[in-house]
Design a protein that fits this description.
- With 573 residues, the chain is of the alpha+beta class.
- Among the domains are: 202 residues, no CATH class; 191 residues, no CATH class.
- Helices cover 42% and strands 24% of the residues.
- The chain has 22 helices and 20 strands.
- The protein has a 20-stranded antiparallel sheet, sandwiched between helices.
- Helix 20 packs antiparallel against helix 22 and helix 21 packs across helix 22.
- The protein starts with a helix and ends with a strand.
C-alpha cells in the first residue's frame, strides 16, 4: 500500500458524527485562510450515501462490481482489515474515534509563491489517535522499505505534540486527539499557535462568521471562499473580465457576474433531508448596488418566473425571466461597438422581410417570461423511423401584445412555405382543445439530400396561441400536450426565482430506453458479455436511472443576497 493510499484513508474515510462538546477543528485555522471547507458529519455522509437505495442499486451493476474487485480497492480493504485487527474495533467504530469531530481543509493562495494547505482531522480520543499514528507509521515504514524508497520518515516530539516529516512535501502533526496535515511546516506551527492562544483564528473573522450563517441548516459539508482574495489573482481577474464582456454571457449571466464581482465571499453547502439531497451556493450581495446593465436582466418586482410546464414524458422543464425588449433598447450600452453595429444591421435587413416591422417593435410585443420543455415522444406521425432519436422540445413565450402572435405567425408560415418547396413539407391546420395548431409534416415519399439518417422524421413542427402564451413545438404531439397544460394552468403567482429548472429521471429513462439497441450493442462489445447477460445489465441501468427522481434548480436574486439552490428528490417525479 503506497503512502498516498494511507494518507487518503487519513483524510477521507467515513467517520462518526461529532459529539456536541467535542472541540471544533476550525480552532486551528488561521485568520489568513482564504478557503475553508468542512465535513461536519463524515459518518452521516457515509450513512446517507452507502445506505441509500440508489447507491445500493449502483453497487449491483457488474461494471461497478468489477471495479470493486480491482487490485487497488482490494488492497485498501486489506489495509482497513489490518487496522481493525490491530486496534481491536470494527471500522466504523474505529473511525468514529479517529474523525468523529469532523474534517477541515483550509488554504491560502494569494500573496504567496505557492498555495499553502492545511488539513485538520478531529478525533475523540487522544489515546486512540496516538495509537493510530504509531500503527500508520509502522505500515508506512514497511511500504517504503518494500518500494526501496530513499526518503525517510522523521518524527519529533514537542511536549504533547508529535511532528512527522515525510520528505519535504508533507508534514503531519498529532496534537491531542487532532491530526494536522500540511505541505508547509510553518502552516503547522501557525495552526498550533492559533489553537494555543485562542486568538487570531478564522472563527474570529467577521466576514467568515457572516458567510458561515448562510449555509444550509444541518449542513453535512460546506465550503467558504474569500472572493476578495480570488479577485487579486491576476489570471482570474483577466479571465473574469473577458468572461463578463462576452455578449453571450452578458445576456445569460449578466446579473450573476455582477454579483460575483461585488461579493466579498461565497459559501457552498450540502445537506440531507430524509433520502433527498440539498445544495446551496450563497453570496451576501444581491440587487442592491447592482450595476444598471446587470439590473436590466432582473424584474422590477418579485415576479421572477412562471410555473414550470410538465407535459407527459417530460425530461426537463425550464422557466426564466428575460426582457429582450429592454436588452435590445440598451444594446449599445450592453455590447461592444462591433456587436451593436451588427445588431443594427440585422434589424435593418430583417425589416425588409417583416413588412417594415422592426426587431425592436417585435420584441416589445413579446413578454418577459420564457419557458422551455424537453420530452420523449410517445407516438410518431410517420411510418419511417429516424435512425437517431433526438426527442421533442418546445418554447413557450408570454406576449405583451396579441399582435405578436400574428406577426411571428406570418414569419413562421413564410419559413414553412420555403420548407414546402425544398423538403416537400405539408401544412395542416389542426384543432385541439379549442385551439388551432399550424403544423408542418414531411413527405415520406420525398428524399432530402444529406439526410440519409432520416433525422427529419423526428419533427412535425407546429405553433399556436393559448391566451397570452405563444407556443412553438418540434412535434405536433408535444404542441397538443402543451395546449392541455396551458388550458389547465391557473393564475398562479410568479415565483421569486428568476430561473427555475427541473430534470425528471422518468422522462430521461424513457429517452435512454429509446436507444436500447445502441446501448446493448456497446455493452456487449465493451464488456465482452453474452447477449442475455448484457441485456440484464442494460435493464438494470434503466431501472437505476428511473429511480433517481428529479433534480430542481432555483436562482434567486434577493435585495441583499443571492442563492442558487439545488434539490435532488430521489424517487419523486
Amino acid at each position: 500500500m503506497s503512502r498516498f493510499t494511507l494518507l487518503a484513508l487519513l483524510w477521507f474515510f467515513p467517520a462518526g458524527v461529532r459529539a456536541g462538546d467535542m472541540p471544533d477543528p476550525l480552532r486551528f485555522v488561521p485568520a489568513q485562510a482564504e478557503l475553508v471547507a468542512k465535513l461536519e458529519s463524515p459518518r452521516g455522509l457515509y450513512d446517507f450515501v452507502y445506505k441509500h437505495s440508489a447507491f445500493q442499486d449502483l453497487l449491483r451493476l457488474d461494471v461497478v462490481q468489477a471495479y470493486l474487485d480491482g487490485t487497488n480497492v482490494r488492497r485498501a480493504f486489506q489495509l482497513i482489515e489490518y487496522l481493525e485487527k490491530e486496534m481491536g474495533q470494527p471500522r466504523l467504530e474505529l473511525l468514529d474515534e479517529l474523525t468523529g469531530g469532523g474534517v477541515v481543509v483550509a488554504a491560502k493562495f494569494s500573496d504567496t509563491k505557492e498555495p499553502i494547505a492545511l488539513g485538520v482531522i478531529q478525533g475523540k480520543s487522544e489515546k486512540r489517535m496516538r495509537q493510530f499514528v504509531t500503527l500508520a507509521l509502522k505500515v508506512l515504514d514497511h511500504e517504503l522499505a518494500r518500494l526501496d524508497a530513499k526518503g525517510k520518515v522523521k518524527v519529533e516530539t514537542r511536549g504533547d505534540t508529535d511532528i512527522i516529516r515525510l520528505g519535504e512535501a508533507l508534514v503531519i502533526a498529532r496534537h491531542g486527539a487532532a491530526l494536522l496535515v500540511s505541505n508547509k511546516e510553518q502552516a503547522i506551527n501557525k495552526a498550533l499557535e492559533v489553537e494555543k492562544d485562542n486568538a487570531g483564528g478564522v472563527l474570529r473573522v467577521s466576514q467568515f462568521q457572516d458567510a458561515h450563517r448562510q449555509r444550509l441548516p444541518d449542513a453535512l459539508a460546506w465550503v467558504w471562499v474569500n472572493m476578495e482574495s480570488v479577485h487579486k489573482i491576476e489570471g482570474f481577474k483577466n479571465g473574469f473580465e473577458a468572461f463578463r464582456l462576452n455578449p453571450v454571457f452578458v445576456v445569460s449571466l449578466g446579473s450573476f457576474t455582477d454579483v460575483l464581482a461585488r461579493t466579498p465571499s461565497l459559501t457552498f453547502s450540502v445537506a440531507k433531508k430524509g433520502d433527498d439531497l440539498m445544495a446551496r451556493l450563497a453570496l451576501p450581495k444581491g440587487r442592491e448596488g447592482m450595476a444598471p446593465v446587470a439590473a436590466a436582466f432582473q424584474p422590477a418586482d418579485e415576479r421572477g418566473s412562471l410555473p414550470l410546464l410538465k407535459p407527459r414524458r417530460v425530461n426537463s422543464s425550464i422557466s426564466y425571466y428575460l426582457d429582450l425588449a429592454k436588452i435590445w433598447e440598451n444594446r449599445h450600452h450592453f455590447f461592444g461597438k462591433n456587436e451593436a453595429e451588427a445588431l443594427d444591421k440585422f434589424e435593418k435587413d430583417t425589416g425588409k422581410y417583416l413588412g417594415g416591422l422592426t426587431v425592436g417593435k417585435l420584441l416589445q410585443q413579446t413578454g418577459k417570461y420564457h419557458r422551455l420543455v424537453f420530452t420523449q415522444p410517445e407516438k410518431s406521425p410517420y411510418k419511417t423511423k429516424p435512425k437517431l432519436d433526438i426527442g421533442a422540445f418546445a418554447l413557450v413565450l408570454d406576449m405583451r401584445e396579441p399582435a405578436f402572435a400574428k406577426t411571428i405567425g406570418t414569419g413562421l408560415r413564410a419559413l414553412g412555405l420555403i420548407g414546402t418547396f425544398q423538403f416537400g413539407m405539408k401544412m395542416v391546420e389542426e384543432k385541439h382543445a379549442g385551439h388551432t395548431l399550424t403544423t408542418y409534416y414531411f413527405n415520406e415519399n420525398s428524399k432530402v439530400p444529406g439526410d440519409n439518417q432520416n433525422i427529419r422524421f423526428n419533427f412535425s413542427p407546429c405553433f399556436t396561441t393559448v391566451g397570452n402564451q405563444f407556443v412553438v413545438a418540434s412535434t405536433s404531439e408535444l404542441g397538443k400536450d402543451l395546449v392541455d397544460c396551458l388550458v389547465k394552468e391557473t393564475a398562479t403567482p410568479a415565483d421569486p426565482a428568476t430561473t427555475r429548472m427541473q430534470f425528471f429521471a422518468e422522462g430521461i429513462a424513457a429517452g435512454v430506453r429509446a436507444t436500447h439497441d445502441q446501448i446493448l450493442t456497446q455493452t456487449i462489445l465493451s464488456q465482452g458479455l453474452p447477449a442475455a447477460e448484457a441485456k440484464k445489465q442494460v435493464e438494470a441501468l434503466f431501472r437505476l436511472v428511473q429511480q433517481l427522481g428529479r433534480v430542481e434548480f432555483d436562482t434567486v436574486y434577493g435585495q441583499h443576497d443571492f442563492r442558487f439552490d439545488v434539490r435532488w428528490l430521489f424517487g419523486k417525479n
